Amino acid sequence: MRWLALVAFFLAAVVLAANRDSEHASPPVPGAFARQIRMKQVIGLAEALELSEADALRMAQVIRSVQERRRPLQEQVAEAARIIKRAADGEPDALARVDAALQQMYAARAQLAELNKELFATLSQGLSAQQRAKMAVFFAKFHMQLRDAQIRRARRMAAAAHGSAATADADLDADLLELE
Predict the structure, then answer these.
(1) Which of 2, 82, 127, 155 has a Cα at 20 to 30 A from 167?
(2) Domain residue spans in the chain?
(3) Burial 131-153 (b: 16+ CB within 10 A, else e)
(4) Distance between CA 175 and CA 152 in Å, rounded?
(5) CA 37 to CA 34: how far, in whole Å?
(6) Measured between alpha carbons, how far is 180 from 165 in angstroms, rounded to an integer?
(7) What's the whole-model pTM score?
(8) C-beta of residue 77 within 8 angstroms of C-beta of residue 108
(9) For residue 164, what is the DSSP state?
């Protein structure tokens, strides 16, 4: 467990350094939030399953590779959602593209579901039935907490756009700390 403390310390140092540097840079580094989420996920999974350091590192590599494959699909879903939102608002160009956007969204979500199954199957290799059950529970809780944190983050960013930028910037990392 000492290595988990070291990893957590390293993660905290990286986040603090990023925050200090972000005071001088305007937009946050793309992918930084995703890296923080992945690190939190790996640490939580390692603790929940009582994994060795080698097993935790193997899982981190698997999660990273799947996350890289998920990113374009998530972008497709987001782009389709923007088109659908614009169509709902009555934008003529978006109205002509709504059916294609819906099909794109459904296809990307189906591929994301398949990636989730693949991730679970790959991570499950060599685990006991109890560890697989613990992993399923961990992922369910983690994804609910992540969704809630993303909603809070989006609200803070919206508040930042409306004038309270200093408060919103200071609170963005608090969402990650709440993922437990």
Answers:
(1) 82
(2) 1-20+31-50+130-180, 71-127
(3) bbebbeebbeebeebbeebeeeb
(4) 7
(5) 5
(6) 26
(7) 0.68
(8) yes
(9) -
d(CA 140, CA 107): 23
Q: Which of 100, 53, 62 is nearest to 79 (CA)?
A: 100
pLDDT in tens, the chain (180 residues): 444 444 444 444 444 444 444 333 334 455 777 788 888 899 999 999 999 999 999 999 999 999 999 999 999 999 999 999 999 999 999 999 999 999 999 999 999 999 999 999 999 998 999 999 999 999 999 989 988 988 988 888 888 887 654 454 445 455 545 554
Helix (H, G, I), strand (E, B) or coil at 89: coil
